[in-house]
Each structure stands twice: as structure tokens, then as C-alpha cells.
Design a protein that fits this description.
heterodimer, A: about 400 residues, 4-stranded antiparallel beta sheet, B: alpha/beta, Rossmann fold, 9-stranded mixed beta sheet, 11 strands, about 25% helix, binds flavin-adenine dinucleotide
């Protein structure tokens, strides 16, 4: 099995410290040795390799930036490098860890009570419990603030009603962080599997992110205890804070997918002979494609690194993250497309990772704020005019 | 029980190598360095014995400042502390002068057993561990494929030519030079990596170890690399072209008439 040696055109590594490089090396080895041999089959079967979860827990891949509960407390650059290596394997693998870490452990850690943290953080860290994050609804994707799911106080309970759609790991989850309208605004709730009135069903027929489970969550008069609310959640902004965490990771992750496509295309171009015994890498059009890919990947790396440094200093803003997510996912999408062209017919079969990345990236382009919505976030920041809710023509 | 492990940082064998200007070695400035492969297995063996029986794992290396990265990784994998012979006087040694330096550093620690790899992936002398055993005056075993710790002894298995396994008992203290493949080296957990930041790396000077600078490093070496080069690409290779049937017929013809092996 070929080992990935990284993509580093401009001595990016000289900006990393020893721990960051070691973290990347461990995760890279895990992905190469444990994940790559099985991904093709899982992708075909539309399953996630659940048997790898305990080892992922042992490596401390879940909640790795938390510095309590025996977790390693990594800095944000090391965390980003983990995301990069995971998504080099598959966007489904990175999504699994993103959801567990940024969308489940983060809100419980940041907005939860001591009891919620003590109960959930250790078992989510080990992978003994899987979590999911329910924000999107059938009718509300880019505009989650208008969600219809409600939580009503009833004595010492909350009663949930509504539906969530496109929820990663929904049916695998032991615990769901669910966002709902209340009299006090949108709040987050910790809902346990098997609570009466809570059901899940899986989305089938996906052509993208196949190695990741995507589900629908249904709540019909679902009674959860009063202390199931995340006490420090007071509005949609708390859900968006989770998304900012996850999007930061995606900005790094997408580079991993781009790197894998680039590497596959470069290797292929050097070996594939067409016309006069020449490798296709000798043709100018092919070189131009490869040059475009490595240039954009390199720019994306520096963008991601600067975000990581700002995040470590507590200065990273959501509109910075929008630029990182938007740009780097776009780069990955274009790289996948160019790599697929370079591989010719081989570009459409799963003997090579390229078509899988190409399909996956379509989900990544859309979830966690679509490419266009992030453009609007940047637009709102630089013009001071939010354009999401254009006034209705009278 | 104190367990010593000697590791070496070597250029990544998968990296593209260029020759240094003087033609005596490779240009090290652009190559990534990694822990020598069989040393990773030696380290895993030591760590798992310490986990099973209790004990302290101390890693040793000779090398410039960059070699601290290899030690840090060993600490992240579970070694307890490290000794880095980084003084310029240790540089440029051969198996003899390196074995002498390592023996002095290990003797200071009163270790009961030393694990090393069987050979390094760069110069490949395959002798440093054995020379080290000589300086310590301890028994040793090379190309070891299995280790079982006993009371005051260590049972080692080696693969012989012809598929035989040789099993021998070594009286401790001893030096065990393992072969790659003896176990499954673990990944450094992210927790381990963060813990390693706080583990100590000692950097003794030659005089701290009672060593005469003329007996170690380049000064103490009897072997000097004069030049390294890439093998000239061979003549006589010939690509046969055509359909599989044509190529097969051509090959048989050539094997009969030119090579005369059929
Ligand atoms: C595989 C997968 C996994 C997912 N996992 C999760 C999960 O775990 N949890 C969760 O809560 N959600 C999840 N999602 C949902 C995801 O976040 C949403 O799909 C995303 O927010 C977009 O919403 P939508 O699909 O409803 O598209 P819509 O919001 O309907 O958007 C459709 C199109 O309209 C554009 N558009 C919308 N509004 C505007 C505007 N104001 N101006 C300009 N253009 C606009 C969009 O950019 C897009 O191109 C997942 C989705 C996928 C595909």
C-alpha cells in the first residue's frame, strides 16, 4: 500500500512545530494502514467502518482540543492537520470526527452543565457513544433560524415536536444535540436514543458521502427531562458557534481531499503513456492542470494555517472561517474535477480515489453553509449589508 | 527494570535523494528524516515489555539537533525519558566509535537490557549493536524475531537460513538487535504526543560520560566514507513490444538463443 508523504510545495512544514508534525504523522499512518484498505468497500456498501471507532477513540481523535477529561488539548493547527489527514482518506471519515468533536462534544463542553459534561464527554471521547447534531430540517437548510421544531416546557419536562433532516450519524447516535424553538428562543437539547417519541430513519440513494450515515430524526411528543436542555444556549448563535468550529475543520479537511486528488493525478500522469511513448505529464495542458492544483492547494494551506493561528489567539471570526471553508472546499472541488480529467476513463472507477472525492465534495460544498451562503457572509462583512433576507418586493 | 533502546534518525527511504556537493554523502538539507525502521520495532518491544512487567524505557540516540524529533516521537510512543548525544564531538562516527559512545551512556544508567534495530537504513553497517555489546561486555543476539523475558534471562528466536528457527537464552544484561516485523509498532496517541512535551531529554557531553573526544565520532572512527553514488543504470535491459503472444514468443526465442538458459 502506497504511503502518502504529504503535499508541501513551499516548505509549509517549516511553520509547524514538533507536536503538530507528530500528530499528523500518527493520523496519517492510521488512515493509510487502517482506513485506506477498507474505504472502497464501505463506499460501495454505503457503510461507515464502525469497527475502527474504538481505535479512533484510543488515538484521541474525538474532542482532541479539549484539555480536560484526559483529552490531549491540542492546538487548533494540530486539530486542522488531523482533519486534513482524515479527509484525505474520505470526507465521510472527516465528517464522522467533525460531528463528534465540533458539533456534539463542543456544545456539550461549552454550553452544557457539569453533569452533562461528566456524563457525555468521556464516552464520546472513547467512541463508546456516538453523537449527532440536529439543526437542518426538511424545509430549513440555509435558513435554520426559521426552524419549526419546538420544545415546550411541561412540568419538569420538555416536550419536543418536529423533524430534522440530513443528520450525519443520526441513526448511529446514542445522543443527539437537537436545536428547537422555545419561548426563550432557539435552544439546544441533549436527547438520548430510545427516548419514547424519538425515531430515526436513514437517507438512502446518496451518490455522495456514501461512507457516512445520513438520517432523519423525528420527534412526536417526545418528553425529555428538564435538565436535558443545554443551559448556556440562548439562541441560534450557539448553534452557529458549533458550526464555526466544524467549518474551521472543513477548511483543513477539504485540503486533504484536494491533496489526495492531486497526488493521484500526478502519479498517474507520470506513468500513463500516450503519443510517442511520452507520459501524459509531459503534455503542456496536463502540466497546467497539475500546476493549478498545487498552486491552489498551497494557497489554501496558508489560509488554513493563518486561521488556526488566529483561533489559538481567540481572534478567529466567523467571517474568516467562511472564507476558509468556501475557498478550500472550492479548491478541492476543482482539483477533483481536474484530477478526474487527467485520469481519463480510470477517473470514473473506484480503483482510484478521485471519483469518490469528487462525489463527496458535493456534500461538503453544500453542508455547513453552502458555498454561496459563505460568499454572502463575506459580502455582509465587507459591505455592512446582510443580503440573506432581501426585502420582499412590495 | 530499566530498558534501554538505541534509535537512529535516518533519511526517509522513500524520499528523493540528491548527492552532497563533495560526493561523500547525500544532501541532507531537503530530505525528511524518520526513525530507522528496525529501531521502531526495537522501541515497540521495549515499551510493551515495560507495560507488561513494569519498568522504565530510556531511549538513546547519537545525532545532531534534528534527531531530537526522533526522541520526541519515541517519548510520545511511551518511552519515559531520553538521552541525546548531540555534542559535535559525537558526529561522524562509525559502528566502533558510536558503539563506544552508546556503551558509556548506557553504562551510566544501569540498564538490564538494551534493544536496538539490526541495521540502519542509511549506512547499513548492521554492527553498532554488536559493537555496543562488546564494549559493555554483554551477550547479544542479532536479527532477532522473537523475545520472551524470563528471570535474569531473555529467550530470543532467530530465523536461520533454510527456514529453521534458532532459540537461545541470553543471560541478562544483554543486547537484543531486533529485525523489522517482530511486532506491530503502535501509533503515537495524541495524548502521548502532548505528554511527551514534558518528558526530559538529557544531553550529556563526552566528558560527562568519561569519554575522550578522540575516541568517539569522526575522530574515533576507523571507517571513512569516501564517496556515495547512484548505481549507473544498467545496460542490456531490453523492452519487448507487441501483443502478449508475440512478446512471449520473442522472449522464449531470446532465452534460448541469446541467454541460452532454456
Ligand atoms: C451529506 C450531508 C450531511 C449533512 N449533515 C448534517 C448534520 O449532521 N446536521 C445538520 O443539521 N445538517 C446537516 N446537513 C444539512 C446541510 O447543512 C444543509 O443541506 C445545508 O445547510 C443547505 O441546506 P439545504 O440543503 O436545505 O439547501 P437550501 O438552503 O435550500 O439551498 C439551496 C440553494 O439555494 C441557495 N440559497 C439559499 N438561500 C440563499 C440566499 N439567501 N441567497 C442566495 N442563495 C441562497 C443555496 O446556496 C443553495 O445553492 C447535511 C447535508 C448533507 C448533504
Amino acid at each position: 500500500m502506497a504511503h502518502f508523504n504529504g503535499v508541501d510545495y513551499m516548505d509549509f512544514d517549516s511553520l509547524l512545530n514538533e507536536e503538530q508534525k507528530l500528530v499528523r504523522e500518527s493520523v496519517r499512518a492510521f488512515v493509510d494502514e487502517k482506513f485506506m484498505p477498507v474505504i472502497e468497500q464501505h463506499h460501495r456498501d454505503a457503510t461507515f467502518p464502525m469497527d475502527l471507532v474504538p481505535e479512533m477513540g484510543e488515538l484521541s481523535l474525538f474532542g482532541s482540543t479539549i484539555d480536560e477529561y484526559g483529552l490531549p488539548g491540542l492546538d487548533n493547527v494540530a486539530y486542522g492537520l488531523i482533519m486534513q489527514e482524515l479527509e484525505r482518506g474520505d470526507s465521510g471519515l472527516r465528517s464522522f470526527v467533525s460531528v463528534q468533536s465540533a458539533l456534539v462534544m463542543y456544545p456539550i463542553y461549552a454550553f452544557g452543565s457539569q453533569a452533562q459534561k461528566d456524563r457525555w464527554i468521556p464516552r464520546l471521547a472513547s467512541g463508546e457513544s456516538i453523537g449527532c447534531f440536529g439543526l437542518t430540517e426538511p424545509d430549513f437548510g440555509s435558513n435554520p433560524g426559521a426552524m419549526r421544531t419546538t420544545a415546550r416546557r411541561d412540568g419538569d419536562h420538555w416536550v419536543l415536536n418536529g423533524a430534522k433532516q440530513w443528520i450525519t450519524n443520526g441513526s448511529l447516535a446514542e445522543v443527539a444535540v437537537v436545536w428547537a424553538q422555545t419561548d426563550e428562543g432557539i435552544r439546544g437539547f441533549v436527547v438520548e436514543r430510545r427516548t419514547p417519541g424519538f425515531t430515526t430513519s436513514d437517507q438512502h440513494g446518496k451518490f455522495s458521502l456514501r461512507a457516512s450515515v445520513t438520517s432523519e430524526l423525528g420527534f412526536v411528543d417526545c418528553r425529555i427531562p428538564a435538565d436535558a436542555v443545554l443551559p448556556k444556549t440562548t439562541g441560534l448563535k450557539n448553534a452557529l458557534m458549533c458550526l464555526t468550529q466544524a467549518r474551521y475543520g472543513i477548511a483543513w479537511g477539504a485540503l486533504g481531499a484536494a491533496m489526495d486528488c492531486y497526488q493521484a493525478a500526478l502519479d498517474y500522469a507520470k506513468e500513463r503513456i500516450q503519443f510517442n511513448g511520452q507520459p501524459i505529464a509531459s503534455h503542456q495542458l496536463v502540466q497546467d492542470k497539475l500546476a493549478w492544483m498545487i498552486t491552489e492547494i498551497t494557497k489554501g494551506q496558508f489560509l488554513a494555517l493563518q486561521m488556526g493561528k488566529l483561533k489559538d489567539q481567540g481572534r478567529l471570526k466567523h467571517f474568516h472561517v467562511s472564507m476558509g471553508k468556501r475557498n478550500n472546499v472550492w479548491v478541492a472541488r476543482e482539483c477533483a474535477k481536474l484530477a478526474r480529467e487527467i485520469l481519463g476513463a480510470n477517473g470514473i472507477v473506484d480503483d482510484y480515489p478521485v471519483i469518490r472525492h469528487m462525489l463527496n465534495i458535493e456534500s461538503v460544498y453544500t453542508y455547513e453553509g453552502t458555498h454561496d451562503i459563505h460568499g454572502l457572509v463575506i459580502g455582509a462583512e465587507i459591505t455592512g449589508i446582510p443580503s440573506f433576507n432581501a426585502p420582499r418586493p412590495s | 527494570m530499566k530498558i534501554a533502546v538505541c534509535i537512529k534518525q535516518v533519511p526517509d527511504s522513500e524520499a528523493r535523494l540528491r548527492l552532497a556537493g563533495d560526493g561523500r554523502w547525500i544532501d541532507e538539507s531537503e530530505v525528511p528524516f524518520v526513525i530507522n525502521e528496525s529501531d521502531e520495532f526495537a522501541l515497540e518491544e521495549a515499551i510493551s515489555i515495560a507495560e507488561a512487567k513494569g519498568g522504565e524505557v530510556i531511549v538513546f540516540t547519537i545525532g545532531p539537533a534534528r534527531a531530537a524529533e526522533a526522541l520526541r516521537k519515541a517519548l510520545a510512543l511511551g518511552a519515559h525519558r531520553a538521552v541525546h548525544l548531540s555534542d559535535a564531538a559525537f558526529e561522524g562516527g562509525d559502528a566502533m566509535s558510536n558503539g563506544r559512545a552508546l556503551a558509556a551512556a548506557i553504562a551510566r544508567e544501569e540498564c538490564e537490557i538494551v534493544f536496538t534495530g539490526s541495521q540502519s537504513d542509511d549506512v547499513g553497517y548492521g554492527a553498532t549493536g554488536s559493537v555496543l555489546a562488546g564494549f559493555l561486555d554483554w551477550p547479544h543476539s542479532w536479527l532477532v524475531m522473537g523475545v520472551e523475558m524470563g528471570e535474569g534471562t531473555c529467550k530470543v528466536t532467530r530465523e536461520m537460513e533454510g527456514g529453521l528457527n534458532e532459540v537461545s537464552n541470553l543471560a541478562l544484561p544483554a543486547v537484543i538487535e531486533v529485525q523489522a516485523g517482530i511486532n506491530h509498532p503502535r501509533y503515537a496517541s495524541l495524548k502521548g504526543i502532548m505528554k511527551a512535551k514534558r518528558k526530559p531529554i538529557d544531553t550529556p557531553s563526552p566528558s560527562d560520560l568519561g569519554l575522550d573526544p578522540s575516541a568517539i565520532g569522526h575522530a574515533g572512527a576507523g571507517v571513512e566514507i569516501v564517496s556515495v553514488d547512484f548505481p549507473a543504470s544498467g545496460k542490456g535491459a531490453e523492452m519487448l513490444e507487441g501483443s502478449p503472444e508475440e512478446v512471449a514468443a520473442l522472449l522464449v526465442d531470446k532465452l534460448q538463443k541469446e541467454a541460452r538458459v532454456l
